[in-house]
Amino acid sequence: MWFLKRMLRIPWAKKTNERVLNEANKRRSLVRTIRKRQATFLGHVMRRGKLEHLVTTGEFEGKRSRGRQREKIMDGLATWLGPGKVSDILAAVKDRDLWRDMIANAYKQGT
Fold first, then answer.
1. How far apart are CA 54 and CA 69, in angstroms?
2. What is the phi/psi pair of residue 101, to 5°?
3. Which spans in the chain are helix H?
4. Could you give the CA distance from residue 87 to residue 63 in angstroms, rounded to a whole number?
5. How many CB atoms lie within 10 A of CB 45?
6. pTM for this structure?
């Protein structure tokens, strides 16, 4: 944000980062880029169907660890890709063109 504040000549303590982004007509793109790369990697892993597939879907045996459970990749991508279940996403991964369209639409929406 410091470069936008410097370019727009905004005092440091006066405005929040969100207001600076709105004035510059910019959006935060790092999270969107990370989600897009996660989705493309997930499609690659799911089509292979090997050990990574089991780990990503959480279908391996063993005891759960104590404390708060970690957020799964599938749950994060399910919220990013829009309304739908994880099982719908796993079915869509098999069709490469459909999967690419889903990722492109989610990236354009910027959610």
1. 18
2. -65, -40
3. 2-8, 17-23, 30-48, 51-57, 73-81, 86-93, 96-109
4. 23
5. 19
6. 0.60
Report how far Cα 95 is from the mean position of its chain's Cα atoms.
20
State mean pLDDT over 57-70. 72
CA neighbor of 107 nearest in space, from 75, 77, 87: 77
Would you say 109 and 32 are in contact if contact means Cβ atoms under 8 Å apart?
A: no
Report whether pLDDT(63) > 70: yes
The rounded Cα 68 to chain-centroid distance in angstroms is 21
Tell me which of 6 and 88 has the higher pLDDT.
88
CB 90 within 8 A of CB 45: no
* pLDDT reading at 70 higher than 60: yes
State residue 70 phi and psi, 5-degree precision. -70, 150
